[in-house]
Amino acid sequence: MRQWREAKARHRDALLFFRVGDFYELFHGDAEEGARLLGLTLTSRNNGAAARVPLAGVPAKALDDYLSRLVRMGRRVAICDQVEDPADAKGIVRREVTETLTPGTIVADNLLTERANNFLVAVVPATDGVYALAALDVSTGELTARRSELADLASELGRLEASELLVPRGASDGELGRAAASTTVTVRDDWLFEADVCENELLRFYGVQSLEGFGFQPDDAALVRAVGALVQYLKEIRPGGVTHLRPPRIERPGRLMALDEMTRRNLELTEPLRVGEEGGTLLDVLDQAVTAMGGRLLRRWTLEPLVVAEEIWARQGAVAGLADVPEVRSRLREALAEVSDLERLSGKLGTGRVGPRDLAGLRRSLELLPAVRAAALESEPPMVRELAEGLDCLEDILDRLVRAIATDPPAALADGGVIRAGWSAELDELRGVRDGARDFIAALQARERERTGIGSIKVGYNKVFGYYLEVTRANLDRVPTEYVRKQTLANGERYFTPELKEWEEKVFGAEERIARLEAELFAEVRDAVAGSVARIQGAGSRVAALDVLAALAEVGARRGYVRPEVHTGFDLVVRGGRHPVVETMMPREEFIPNDITLDEAGRIVILTGPNMAGKSTVLRQVGLIQLLAQMGAMVPATEARLPVTDRIFTRVGASDNLARGQSTFMVEMSETAAIVHGATRRSLVLLDEIGRGTSTYDGVSIAWAVTEHIHEHIGAKTIFATHYHELTQLGDQLSGVKNMNVSVREVGDQIVFLRRLVDGGADRSYGIHVARLAGMPSEIVERARELLAELEGTHSGGGEGLGRYGRHRPRSEASRDQLSMFQVEHPLVRRLRAIDPDDLSPKEALQILYELGSATRRRDEP
Ligand code: ADP
Fold first, then answer.
1. What is the 618 CA–ligand 1 centroid distance (Å)?
2. Number of neighbouring beta carbons within 10 Å of residue 74
3. What is the rounded distance in angstroms from the CA atom of residue 747 to the CA atom of residue 844?
4. What is this structure's pTM?
5. How does DSSP classify residue 713?
6. Is 85 helix (H, G, I), strand (E, B) or coil?
7. How far apart are CA 139 and CA 122, in angstroms?
8. Which of 293, 428, 469, 633 has its CA 20 to 30 A from that of 565?
9. CB neighbours (10 Å) of residue 753?
10. Which of 591, 617, 741, 770 to mutate to test ligand 1, by most ligand atoms within 8 A of the CB atom?
11. What is the pLDDT of residues 100-154, one digit of tens each?
């Protein structure tokens, strides 16, 4: 237990798996936690005189499986292994923590998601309200740094899909803690984030004299701190060192669109709104990438639309260009398809975890690069050509791999046969000796059969006893005297002879030397390849980019998308627009395309229509088309002219933020507030049913005021889907607001959803139609019509145009309306009316006031 205590002391926040024989054991609190998280059986063992120690264990063979479950749950795990052979140990076997696994630092394939990056992110406060972020994917070596305002911090972390955060202790509560939400947070001592500590760390790590070469500027100290803290942490987690980190790339603001969590979720970019649902995201439709690298990059592009027109145009040119040349594209994709994950291979190279099959995979990939390059060079777009021209096909490495590594090497080096014949004369010779000896032994069988006359004599081999001659029981009396018994079986005996022993030693001796030599030779090749890790990463990222461009072209061509005209002006015009995801869920002709224009004269659309008409679909479709355009992709429409927006905001339906302990309405209002604060004239704002979480009157008033505010003070292009018909009055009142609706028609007893977007507000009596169709008695339907007419009379206030909801309308009038709507007298009013003040003494008056006061309070109580 002393070893355990020492190891645990250094890894307090990790579950410590401690090797004992064929098991890894958890003790004390770790055992209890392991039992809870993994369903292990909790037992205990007697610890000498001391109390009983809780204990839970997993078989060594199954360790990986348990580790991956824990890491997915966001836990840290330390593995304490035997570091000397038990046979050589004097006393207790020496054990050390050989590996620490945390969600943000894993490199093993079985723990990673192939098509998503795995970012470890360090966050440090810079100046007031600004944070510096550094993000590292250890599995690929990509390292970036950026600043973020507090308001955008959660968006940034969400966009990176950070799986672990490093934060300084001093900043771990408060704002930072909240932004981290559900990510695993690793709190580290403040001094590890100090500027000079971090700077020295980086200078040492990259072996440079100054950080300027990486693009750090004098006022980037906070970025240096974030990057340095990451590198420092990684050194602790992987004491064996890492050699594949790329130099940090600094992302200056203004290149990528910030996408907040709401918008990512509402537009279902990478995750479906309902957890656990398969398919149904934009990424599912787009992901035609044929490599894992391309898959990851496409995911990032989806979460990081561009905001610089030139960059968008460049990508568009590449995508549309490749969409136009189906044959070139399919040649390119065919070559790409067999390229293995070069980026993650570099992670394995950098952490010394490369096996023979990895190098064989690399060889296959490198063989294909010239074909990738040639196919890409057949196409016109400058971006594609530039990527292809700069693609380093790594011929020197390929040459070495071809000559050194066997065609089909085994997974484990120890299985032998990894190095190809001809690479090392010494190895070839040893193999010759071994094979000769084996042949000799094989030939022995025939000779001994003849010599002894025992026709059934067999030469065999097993791991424990080596080579032997086996004789069945019936022939034992004929065994020659020089045979030495080795092993007794149920129906025979196994023997060796001096001659067999001699040749066996030749085989074993050669095999031992072969194994040692192969390991040396393999290490040489591996190290040579690892020395070129930066070139491999470079090739990997070019391959990924080509793959994504070709994938977007493929989607565009296959689904009939067009290249939108992206401009720096204001107007948004979509003809024949479709929802990229919804359209894939039905036969092609069933999805009804729609046109929509948002321009100065109609920059806000109030979109009405009954439930299920298709309002949300139109709303999201516009958002997705805009987002696709800013990724540089083609869009599902027959024609589109789209502006470069600075942000896309959405507020859709009642989202399930209830877990955070806020009421639905509160969430809705805070989301809406965030939009109102963040949107500019260049934003696209998509609102669906805001105000629904409260009473009709509150709801209409809030929706109304928000629309007015956006119209007058922000000027953003906005679509506002609502079932509040009152809001259609805004279309008459405000110059930039227009009404549209998704039309329905009643045919006989059926309601037909036409899914057509048309000008004007929806037919407001639609609900009553539905009531009738649903079999409501005709008296009720008639009475409802009457009431509706009456209410409409009260509300649209005799041709005032501005309606009774005009902004200057006094509050008292609004509340009078609320009462009149129901045409019943409020009990308090009745009570007041019954009072004759002249009859009351001051004391009685006070008494009544108390009563009324408490009655009011009771009514207001929920
Ligand atoms: P609303 O927001 O008005 O309640 P939705 O947008 O949720 O309605 O649409 C309801 C359903 O109608 C969607 O799930 C989809 O299957 C179908 N739908 C919507 N728009 C279209 C369309 N343009 N063409 C075909 N089906 C559509």
1. 8
2. 15
3. 64
4. 0.82
5. I
6. coil
7. 16
8. 293
9. 15
10. 617
11. 889 998 888 888 888 999 999 999 998 878 999 999 999 999 999 999 988 888 8
